[in-house]
Amino acid sequence: MLGRDPDGSTRVHTRSRVCVWVFCKTLEHVQRMRQSGPGRLEADSVPQLSDFAYGFTRWELAPEGDGTRFELRAELRPGFWVPPLLGPLLIERGLSSSALQALEGLERESRARR
To answer: Can you tell me the distance from the alpha carbon of 104 to that of 63, in angstroms, rounded to the nearest whole number?
Structure first.
């Protein structure tokens, strides 16, 4: 967490390493995150501080059985060159893995607070 903005949103920084064949890049992503409803977080990328020219992410969490259902919707436009053909698919896979790691971190934090 990088702090709060005057509008009450929280700035969050993530770093992901994505490789496409021999091309590897560490992606820096700063987002303004806010709660937009019960169980819903939304975030906009801060392009000046990120490797993304545009980004919008929505996290939705809801009770389900003994656990929690999690849905993630993300629209990201890289601010860097992406190798054609398989590049977008492999970058999506790398970012999905990073999102899963973030979710696992949130779950660990939640368990530690119980």
So the answer is: 16
The DSSP 8-state label assigned to residue 9 in this structure reads: -
| Average pLDDT over every residue of 51-80 | 89
Rg for the chain, CA atoms, rounded = 15
CB 79 within 8 Å of CB 52: yes
Asked if residues 73 and 61 have their Cβ atoms less than 8 Å apart, the reply is: no
In the predicted model, what is the mean pLDDT of residues 80-93? 74
As a whole number of angstroms, the distance between CA 50 and CA 27 comes to 8
Structure tokens at 57: 């992410």
Which residue spans within the chain are E strands per DSSP?
3-4, 10-20, 23-37, 40-45, 52-64, 67-78
d(CA 83, CA 40): 33
- Global pTM reads 0.73
